[in-house]
Protein 1
Amino acid sequence: MAAEKGIVCVTGAGGFVASWLIKHLLSKNYVVHATVRQPGDPKYAHLSTFEKASENLRLFTADILDYSSVQSAVEGCIGVFHVASPVPSTTVANPEEEVIEPAVSGTCNVLKASLESKVKRVVFVSSASAVVMNPTWPKDQVMDENCWSDKEYCRATKNWYCYAKTEAESEAWEFAKRSGLDLVTVCPTLVWGPILQPTLNASTLPLLRLLKEGLETVENKLRMIVDVRDVAEALILTYEKPEAEGRYICTAHEVKTKSLVEMLKSIYPNYNYPKNFTEVHDQIRLSSEKLRRLGWSCRPLKETPVDSVESYRKAGFLD
Ligand SMILES: NC(=O)c1ccc[n+]([C@@H]2O[C@H](COP(=O)([O-])OP(=O)(O)OC[C@H]3O[C@@H](n4cnc5c(N)ncnc54)[C@H](OP(=O)(O)O)[C@@H]3O)[C@@H](O)[C@H]2O)c1
């Protein structure tokens, strides 16, 4: 039997990204302290079906806004993956309370608890939203990890999720500098791929809409996507590689909406796809070169939409 790799904590365990991360961690012989907010809720049932879950997965009840609950989950861990954050699918009535506060104060709580428990490294799931909202970045230059979203610009454009992720990541770096905590951040673009959890997460919705809604016209946007399984691997890689440092943009493929629809149509001709596309001029380009240099690779583009559709079908979301 392979040796256990140590105990790590994953926050927001029931979510789309965290569920895949936990599945991969268990398969690599980690013992996982996984935080959930409502223990016993069927939305977490899938976690206990993962291989090795019965021996190596321990669920902790924790809200990231409640320091002592976070502390109990982090205690005894050598690594922490901070994944939990509100990811709204629509505009929210009270952004401060519903998005910003949990993202920012929640992250501070997780970092404080990690420092107190002498955790060796924290991997924080930030977002490309904390990178791309930067109107002063030169238009012809590919965005790398030096590019930060402009918080004032996010506020002015009422982009509360982008604001919250940017503020949370920058606060996390301030905390790490002050305290000496070993922190790595990973900034994924739009995450797609098969879902393990029984409920729909926000980033899955745009793909489902392309399959189901039969829209008259959609914008032919350039989408920067990454597969959820490749995100899980990126998080583990940045945790395990001693030389990992700083931020890592995590993106795999650029695809225009129309090409994506054509690809899906050639495999699944009978879904209710958009009928027309209007051209838009996308200027943002992102690079994951730094993550690739660390040893990350990603699956071919086609696997992600195909495996996504298969998982939506199985879960009944395409009926
Ligand atoms: N999906 C993407 O395209 C994408 C792209 C870039 C970055 N990210 C980042 O990846 C992370 C995971 O996103 P996801 O797509 O997996 O979203 P998700 O499925 O909605 O998962 C978010 C998780 O955060 C938890 N959470 C929210 N507020 C919490 C709180 N106060 N205390 C404890 N847990 C809380 C939720 O717990 P409950 O289940 O209890 O509600 C849920 O498990 C987030 O940090 C997100 O910003 C996602």
Protein 2
Amino acid sequence: MTSDVHNAQTVEAFWKRVDRRGEDECWPWTGRKWQQHGVYYFNKNSNAMAHRMSWEIHYGPIPKNKVIRRACGLLTCCNPRHLVVGSYVPPPHRPCPRGHKHDPEYAAWKAMRRRCYRPSCADFQNYGGRGITVAAEWLNSYDTFLAYVGRRPSPKHSIDRIDNDRGYEPGNVRWATAKEQARNRRRSVKVSAFGETLSLGEWAERFGVSSDTIRQRLERGWDPSRAVVNGAQAVAT
Ligand SMILES: [Zn+2]
């Protein structure tokens, strides 16, 4: 939040939504809320937490990486006398009663199912919306999925489908970095030559030309039937 949004008009609109009581009493927010916190909407796309706005109106910009706590304990309180600056402390790690909620692998499993089966998911159109599914044995069993893919090798890895046109199924899923996934996407570009349509990777395997070479040749405008074969073969065909 920048201080330029705190013009007189905004400040006035802000206080209209606060029930300002006695000096030492709590000043509850009466506007919209999100998870019990007051939220002020500048417009449809921009908002700020009410207690943070109150602090900034009184004391100036909130120092970087600091949080504003309500010393009184009332989450909607906007009385600046009840607001104190604190450092963010991550919540204590509570092990899940089912044993895995906090695992990145569990998050990956949940996200995979969401992309494929929940139309309200932003990515649905690129997954479920175009027929990408999750193998039945994984769909309802996180443990089976985890047993197959194993632990995530690093935070840079995410679940990748090797063949982009096939679903999340054994044989088509692995952990891969963004870089590896981009390379894989390039490799799986389809090329038609000699009456067949194969991926770059498949052409590369067939004629022993690297998929990068084929891609570069195609970018230079080569005819696909020349691009996928090596020089000697090109002469022969
Ligand atoms: Zn209070």
